[in-house]
Specification:
The complex is a heterodimer of chains A (456) and B (290). Chain A has 19 helices and 13 strands. Chain A is of the alpha+beta class. In chain A, the strands form 4 sheets. Chain A has a 5-stranded mixed sheet. In chain A, strands 7, 10, 11 and 12 form a 4-stranded antiparallel sheet that branches. In chain A, strand 1 (69-75), helix 2 (78-94) and strand 2 (97-103) form a beta-alpha-beta unit. The longest helix of chain A has 18 residues, at 411-428. Chain A is globular, with a radius of gyration of 22 Å. Chain B is mainly alpha-helical. Helix content of chain B is 74%, strand content 0%. Chain B has helices spanning 2-35, 53-59, 62-94, 100-106, 109-112, 115-125, 132-141, 153-181, 185-193, 198-226, 230-235, 247-257, 261-285. The two termini of chain B are 33 Å apart. The chains are: A alpha+beta (456), B mainly alpha (290). The interface between A and B is large, with 56 and 57 residues.
Chain lengths: 456, 290
Amino acid sequence: VYLHSRRRTSGARSIGILAIVLVMATAACSSDEESTTTTAGGAEGSSTTAAAGTTEPTETTEPSELSGSINVLVVSSPSATGLQAVAESFTADTGVEVNFVEVPYTDVTSTVLLAARAGSSEFDVIQYDSGFLVELVAGGALLGLDELIAASPEYDIADFPQKVQDYTKYNGVSYGLNLSTEPYVLWYRTDLFAELGLNPPATIEEYISNAEALDAAGYFGSDSGYGPDIGGYYWLQHLKQAGVEFLDTATCEFHATDPEFVAATEQYLSLIPYTPPSAVNGGGNEMTAAFIQDEVGQEVNATGYYSIMADPEQSNLSDNFAAALAPGEGTSLFGWLIGLSADTQNQDAAWAFLMHALDKEGVWAMVDAGAPPPGRISFGEDAEFMASAPYWPILIDAAAIGEGPPGVPEFPEIQTIMSQTISAMAAAGDPDVAAMLADMQDKLEGALEGSVACSN
Amino acid sequence: MAKRLRREGFAFSIPAWILLGLVVALPIVTAVYLSLTDLELTRPQSGSFIGFENYRDTVFTSEFLSSLMITLLFVVGALVIQFVLGYILAYALAQPLRGRMVFRTGILVPLLMTPIAVGLMWRFLFNPDLGLVRWILEPFVGGGERINFLGDVWLARGVVIGIDTWMNTAFVTILLLAGMLGINDELYEAAAIDGASRWQTTFHITIPLLTPVILVVFILRYIALFRLFDIVFAVTRGGPGTSTRNLSIYAFEEAFRLLNVGRAASIAIAMAVLSIPTYWAFSRLVRPDV
């Protein structure tokens, strides 16, 4: 896609940005990403001040009044495919040309924040993982949407569970619309469970017991990612299930050396013998690959993978699987969000596109195009949809109790440290968990040293 | 006359100096400057001059030292293997064997592939559940056990060195072969008449005459291995833990995951500074008057 630069940046700024790009290129020669389907659930970033943009008050704009073009940054995913599918009808209705710029998942924050630092209007609409929210806001890249949402009754924000509304916010301001809602839930093999007389586990202990039974029957009894890249997310998920708090956002204190934290970590590591080795090295993609290969009996993973699991062209599972709430006390809530760039020069058209794609009526075209649906409560009233998405009630229930990542700009650094630690423990075979956690605690405290924002 | 020629020569070289300044000096100067600032992409107000704080917090740390050791492990491990294999292959290809042209062309194939694609290909091959390596090893391992090459610290390091060797041994081979073919046959004939053994011929004729080529290949491979990124990123992402996190991956983490441009720049500058003694030593060795 050829991008028009609709606002000229000053020469000095351009040189500054060029310099930053050159340094980043010096630091690492490439950042290509695998061409695997991406589901929301990862995060990056760091730092402090929340320099949020604010919505300029607008009146509702008629489609005939819109003009020009908009640039939409997307990440390869079924959600992006859905956006691209509805763009044609938007252009037909409004005459606004929609250009899509696809970037790898790992490049979203650096691409958007470099553009924001340049004051560039390179992107009008930005698709991002909910885990990126705080750092994008801190970097001044996103526009606050509350006034636009309030002025758009057709969007009907009340149609989302409160937790789903909350995880689009930072410091009480909404910076994104739900593009997909992907809490972590239990996925299990109905055929194996029936054959072995197992029930969906309500507690972690029952999950482990199931894992042992599945292992004895020749299947992997568990499936979780311990990899150095995003293993921290799955570890955090286990901690949530175990009811263990890892960071007190009010005091910025970590609890990695608490006995409960150590015990929950040892419990999580005890599941490795029941886990496919490829998942031990990786994350959600590797877990899903093992699950759809008919090798795994149960796993806790994001609902965004449902479309792959249910696709007979990709999956060996057929319809032999189902969802349940993750065992234990809590779960993680992630998902794709989509927002407006703080530097957009065509805000009306950009917002009109979001409404075209995501308002209560328009969203069905996205879903029909294969996009994972955002967590609208009203979807449950549609019999046809419910027949195609039997996991939906579980998603809504999980979303209602789910928690996003802690709202600190340093979360990506925290996540990186945690991922590397759990990966090192998994590789060690018989690790000294307490010592490694003490070392991690030191690193985590260092990451939050000087942080001005520990709570949203 | 000579003065005028020098002036004209300088005048003609001005465009080249300007170009060199733009594409080489400007980025380096900028990187040095950024390494002295607290620039973070998530803090719009950042970018202040902070002196050597980044070096204190990022370079003079155990994390950096650990990554440096891993970098040197990759450099030494891969260089040794690639030179031994490259020499053997070059020696074989220098012989009048049938089909050697096909083989000479064939070994270049890995070299022509994009490193990131090579990394992804090998990552899939080493996938302990679905990869080809698992199926090849299954008869030897037995008991349904799956060797997790990428989940073991030393196996993962070995895989990185192995993949780089698979990809770049051809480079060493071709240059050594070119050097071997450039050695005058009369020297070998004279050695044969004098009754020299194959080993004596190798150590007293071939290797001494190949020394300039060996040094050039060595320094080129050293540079490439010191800043090795693509293969590690695609195959292990620096894991398990941080066991394959070399300096390039460390800098990448700072720049693209933590978005801390100042600290990433300090790592990049430190990498360059650390390489200077090696480059200097080898550039002296390849000077014709040494």
